[in-house]
Structures are given as structure tokens and as C-alpha cells.
TrEMBL record:
It is a multi-pass membrane protein. The lineage of its organism: Bacteria, Bacillati, Actinomycetota, Actinomycetes, Micrococcales. InterPro entries: Mem_transp_PIN-like, Na+/solute_symporter_sf. It is found in: Cell membrane. One of its GO terms (cellular component) is plasma membrane. This is Membrane protein. GO terms for biological process: transmembrane transport. Keywords: Cell membrane, Membrane, Transmembrane, Transmembrane helix, Transport.
């Protein structure tokens, strides 16, 4: 558990620096959106290219991956059903709420947790790849679709209007920097030969800035004075926190036990499912200007709850 506390302490220190920068206005009023844009368009794509290019794609066929993917899909579908069908939220708000409920902090916290608690960094790969190859592309496609409208002189119900809209969505999706970085890494990982490491070094150097910049952005967002309009809706926040901190670990345990995972593998999938909402969700929300308050507050609350949740998981399964 020392690994968990150490990782959380490191995250907390960087977030505190971001809060101080935002509170004092050292970087100016527009610093947080600019940093979010740098993370979204430059640092994160570089990090994902290197990460996915070095991933073992055979892990996608393991029982551990099946449990990770299935539990994540169930959590995401639950969030979509409640937000869309029960509470009638818009597509963009549903998308951000679903990410806040299902997108875990696999990189910043999951990696050190896997290394120090589980003794193997491979444990984080199924969750990381699922988020990069499935959750993020689907979310961006939905958010881009909301930003794309038919031409003013077109009947939005006509076949030509739909064709233009589909083409625009595909074009925006395939030009999304994060999707481009992920797909490029996937192609490189599937090649029968490896590029020299010197080719990856510039991308690794730039990608190393993704995590600290995202944390600084998160801290700066916490320094913004709260108003009624800037607070996350209580129901949406309760749903995201409940799914993220309670439902997902329970689902991972149930599915892992049903598939007969050995004790170490079961501990790994449940620990990864117990991770808090990733700060990247806030970066994505800021990029598209939707659900920023929910992404920020869900990240904060689930990070605080991460320690007791992981203590229960390790005491029960460790």
C-alpha cells in the first residue's frame, strides 16, 4: 500500500502546484485552456504513439483483458443508459459523464501501482489499450459529431446532408491528434519488425510532459472560484463516483471470479478497476467545452476515495 500512497502523494503535489499557479495567476487567465490544448494536441498523442507501439497486442486475447474490457463496457453502458434514457442529457454531456465513470487513471496512477503493488507493469496494459483503442475514439467521434452540422441550405433530413455530415465526422475523427497517435502506434506494434529506439526518443521526450501538464491543468481548474454554474450536477457526480469507485471494482471481481482467474490476476484486474477517473477526461472536456465541472469534480472525488477502496481490495484479495 506504500506504492499507492507514494503515487497519490506525487499526483497531489503536482496538482497542488497547479492550484497555486492558478490561484496566483502566474501564467495568466488563459493558461489552463492553453495547457489543455498542448496536452490534447501534442503531448498525449506522442505518449500514446510510443506506449501502444511497444505494447504486446497478444494481451488483448487474455482472460484478464476479457474481464477488464467487459467490466468497463458494462460501466460505460450503465452510465449511458442512466444519463441518456433516464435523465435525458444531451449527447456531449452523456459522453463526458460516461468517460468520468469509466475512464481510469491507468497511466499516472495505474502504472506505478502495477509495478510496486502487483510487481508487473503488464497489468495496466489491457485497461490502457481498451481506453485508447475503444473508449477515446468512440467518445471523440460523438463529440465531433455534435460539433458538425449540415450546411445551412441543406435539409438536415436529406440523403446528401447525411452524407456530408458522415464525411465531416469521419474527417474530424481521423484528424483528431489522439486518435492519430493511437492508430499510428497500433500499426507500429503490428509490424513484424521494430523501428530503432532512436526513432521513438523524440516522441517519448514530448510524451513525458503529458502527465505533469494534465495534472497542472487539473490543479489550475480547482483554483477557479466556484459559482452555481461551475459546480458539477449532484446526480451526475454521484453516478460517476458510484460507478467508478464501487460498481466497477465489484463487476471486475465478479467477472474475474466467474472466469476462474487465479488470485494474482484477480487482484490485478480489481485493482485496475479501482483506479480514479483520469485527469485526461478534464482535458477532453475542456477541449470540447462540455462537462468540465463534472470531469473536474469526478477526478477529485474518486482520487480521494481511491485509497480506502484499494485498501479494501488488497485486504480482501491480496
Amino acid at each position: 500500500m506504500g506504492a499507492v500512497l507514494s503515487a497519490l502523494g506525487t499526483l497531489g503535489a503536482v496538482i497542488a502546484v497547479g492550484w497555486l499557479l492558478g490561484r496566483t495567476g502566474t501564467l495568466g487567465e488563459r493558461a489552463a485552456p492553453v495547457l489543455a490544448r498542448v496536452v490534447f494536441a501534442v503531448a498525449t498523442p506522442a505518449l500514446l504513439l510510443v506506449t501502444v507501439a511497444h505494447a504486446d497486442l497478444h494481451l488483448l486475447l487474455s482472460r484478464t483483458a476479457v474481464v477488464t474490457w467487459s467490466s468497463t463496457v458494462l460501466v460505460a453502458l450503465t452510465a449511458v443508459l442512466v444519463l441518456r434514457l433516464v435523465w435525458r442529457r444531451g449527447a456531449a454531456e452523456v459522453t463526458v459523464g460516461t468517460l468520468a465513470s469509466s475512464y481510469v487513471n491507468a497511466g499516472n496512477l495505474g502504472l506505478p501501482l502495477a509495478v510496486y503493488l502487483l510487481g508487473d507493469a503488464v497489468a495496466v496494459v489491457p485497461a490502457l489499450l481498451f481506453q485508447l483503442l475503444v473508449l477515446a475514439p468512440v467518445a471523440f467521434a460523438v463529440l465531433d459529431a455534435r460539433a458538425t452540422a449540415a450546411a445551412p441550405d441543406e435539409d438536415p433530413r436529406s440523403g446528401r446532408a447525411w452524407t456530408l455530415r458522415v464525411r465531416a465526422v469521419v474527417r474530424r475523427t481521423l484528424s483528431n491528434p489522439i486518435i492519430v497517435g493511437t492508430l499510428t502506434g497500433l500499426v507500429l506494434a503490428a509490424l513484424p519488425w521494430r523501428l530503432p529506439e532512436v526513432v521513438y526518443q523524440p516522441f517519448a521526450l514530448v510524451g513525458a510532459a503529458a502527465a505533469p501538464l494534465a495534472l497542472l491543468t487539473f490543479g489550475m481548474s480547482l483554483a477557479v472560484p466556484r459559482t452555481a454554474a461551475s459546480r458539477a450536477p449532484r446526480r451526475e457526480l454521484a453516478l460517476a463516483v458510484g460507478l467508478r469507485s464501487v460498481a466497477h471494482p465489484v463487476l471486475a471481481w465478479a467477472l474475474g471470479a466467474a472466469l476462474g482467474l487465479p488470485a494474482p490476476a484477480l487482484l490485478a484486474v480489481v485493482a485496475m478497476a479501482s483506479l480514479p477517473t483520469a485527469q485526461n477526461v478534464l482535458v477532453y472536456a475542456m477541449q470540447y467545452g462540455r462537462g468540465e465541472a463534472l470531469a473536474r469534480d469526478a477526478g477529485l472525488v474518486t482520487t480521494v476515495l481511491c485509497v480506502p477502496v484499494l485498501l479494501v481490495v488488497t485486504a480482501t484479495l491480496g
